[in-house]
Design a protein that fits this description.
With 935 residues, this protein is α+β, with helices and mostly antiparallel strands. Helix content is 18%, strand content 30%. The strands form eleven sheets. Strands 1, 2, 3, 4, 5, 12, 14, 15, 18 and 31 form a ten-stranded mixed β-sheet that branches. It has a nine-stranded parallel β-sheet with strand order 33-32-30-27-21-20-19-35-34. Belongs to the glycosyl hydrolase 31 family.
Length: 935
Amino acid sequence: MLSFSRSPILSYLLWSLLLLTLASSNGVVATAKPKVGFGYKLVSLVQLPNGGGLVGCLQVKQPTSTYGPDIPRLRLFVKHERRERVRVQITDADKQRWEVPYNLLPREPAPPLTGGKVTGAPFTAAEYPSEELVFTYGRDPFWFAVHRRSTRQTLFNTSAGALVFKDQYLEVSTALPKDAALYGLGENTQPGGIRLRPNDPYTIYTTDISAINLNTDLYGSHPVYMDLRSIGGRGVAHAVLLLNSNGMDVFYRGTSLTYKVIGGLLDFYFFSGPTPLAIVDQYTSMIGRPVPMPYWAFGFHQCRWGYQNLSVVEGVVEGYRNAQIPLDVIWNDDDHMDAAKDFTLDPVNYPRPKLLAFLDKIHAQGMKYIVLIDPGIAVNNSYGVYQRGMARDIFIKLDGQPYLAQVWPGPVYFPDFLNPNGVSWWIDEVRRFHDLVPVDGLWIDMNEASNFCTGKCTIPKTHQCPIPDSKTPWVCCLDCKNITNTRWDEPPYKINASGQTARLGFNTIATSATHYNGILEYNAHSLYGFSQAIATHKALQGLQGKRPFILTRSTFVGSGAYAAHWTGDNKGTWENLRYSISTMLNFGIFGMPMVGADICGFYPAAGSLEELCNRWIELGAFYPFSRDHANFASPRQELYVWESVAKSARNALGMRYKLLPYLYTLNYQAHLTGAPVARPLFFSFPDFTPCYGVSTQFLLGSSVMVSPVLEEGATSVSAMFPPGTWYNLFDTTKVVVSKGGGGAPVRLDAPLNEINVHVYQNTVLPMQRGGVISKDARATPFTLVVAFPYGAMEADAEGAVYVDDDERPEMALAEGQATFVRFHASVRGGKAVTVRSEVMMGSFSMSKGLVIEKVSVLGLEGTGGKDLAIQVDGADAATAVATSSPYLAVGGDAKLQGEDGVDENSKRSVSVEVGGLALPLGKSFTMTWNMRIDA
């Protein structure tokens, strides 16, 4: 075993000598790979007054030329911004470098650059602590680390590799324990599941490349990861964000992680956790809380690229109603447009008078209508949107002229959403369109930005573009040439763009193009969809004062504060069905909880879709964002096309619509704390290591678990159950009692039209009767499902529900506009049962006449109930509120499933129903009774 000096220079020289000697002994002349960098040394470090942090100066140890010259002096800035968050920023000490604009992502500013001259008290201590995290460092060579104050557990440590900082190449590495479970670093389709796999590629750069491409940089840029470790039997998590919008490769080797970034600066944020839920709370408190969604957004959505005329759309709505399948929102892709031009209507296929009449009809029923818009604005002198954009000079430029690209309408220019005039122009165009068509939301697509061409293009003189009646409108028809004479289009380090080291400008805006104030596309590329979402949110929020709904394809850190997301162009295959779960769960970690995949797949696939669509709607009914969408070339796949699929849809969507109050309450909690709607199992069970890699099941909130069938021909599913009692929501007499058992799966029946959805013990789950549209479903009476552990003797359960006027832009408790109710339940001695509520601001739910009609309690032991007593606001229910005839009934015995349970003969567990109620949701109540247990 060889052991070399800790000096990186001496180590490098000794390794080089050894390699040359070995090569010479074999008659080979070896050429050593050029050293990228030798690191920096810390030459000064001071502490700013009033908790302002540390500022240091770094000096390069030995310059190299690989990927360009090293920046000679760097500024180090360290600050504990909050007790659970520390920021470490490294940048050029003398020149301002590109960073994510503060007006896009508001955050605490770093100190201004002073050329390395900083006044303050010299800092000589070895550690710089906060209440939870500690920053440590070495001086020569410079390295830094972050660890927990309480346990000394290291979270990030760069001492194993040299810091490299050049104009277009930044590199830094951290060591990792081999048993750390990592999640995040996206967006990409991960065939191995949600847990990151060593040696898989993780390139972060927004790209229009279909989600069917595996391990490839896709539509979003989220350079953040969560690290979960089991320490002494406890799951402990932290997260690391590198806030940088430039393209990067991240190399995860199992025991190390290395960033290779092509610009900007190193701006790290470390979040201490220690639970996954605490991580997303801390993360979204910095990047922006998830935007609140309107209630109807949690209904079912139907779209298709290929609804050629309004009559087809009307027929789709009628098809859903005739089949009694829930439907809240009907969408148009670009079919409604005149020649694929934004903010227009096709006068033949979508004539405005007929469209307005259709919208009046569906709006009266409570349905909504959403259309797509792309960022590319058609170059057309007779097109008012284009004329107004040219007049205000709001397009991205190359060589002083608007950058020419091609998308669906043919030649286009791209609006610059970093330009204040571009934002105000966009807001005005959205207003004009809304005056034309009162849409209920907007779908912003192709905003990576997508371009069918590459390089510098001109409109051809020898042929038309777009080509009339082309069957392949995505093929470039402009005259284009690659741009190779700039360091922005041909940087010294090539990231693995598009999974094939493609040019940075491949099928997008040339990276030497410029935005407002000379900002390079090279730096701002991955911010395009983010900046468009912000502008679109401003536009919609200004219309009628309603809560906006925006669906965006391209995303960045903070996009969840403005928009929902779908996982892009998937395929109608069983593999894509499975992949959708991991991508959905990742976006919950990224702070975008409203997410889902195209149900049944966007692209057509060989073979029959019927069985796949059965299973996909069973899963997709429990995506936070639930939408069926297909390509124009796909066979029709609306859920009523096959009777078997319609049956699965009625079953699964029927349960979704019963769960709408729960989903909407999760929406409220997400807005308050960032908590994802759909979560990996480890969010609720971080101590249960067998669930760290589970990517075939997920939780809704903390307590509802979805276990879909993901294999063709399967009529059962092998599901993992963390320790505790789980009740099947479709049939609560079916119970799984898990002791953990090292993660041994339980085999559950899953016939074609059924999906397994379970609720966990210690939960009070609010449900309603459901319906075929959310407007009607949300007005129906409530049922509370109280889940105690199987055969509970001493147990507690809790839950909550939030209801409001969802047209308000804000989602906050306000008297007369929202109500929040906490539910508590307990059983003592196996006999005395109590269910009660605590109401905050009950007047809204009172004005809506919302009532609780039934309480269903699971897990009790006994043969009956007695001594039922109910009080409302401290008074006897008989005098406090008009009720029908309350009754208390005991259901049948629970049926244990799986082998990892308890002896069926050891306990007898039953359900108890208290029905015939009309308890106002807006008034606190207490309900008690005693179980009768026969000898």
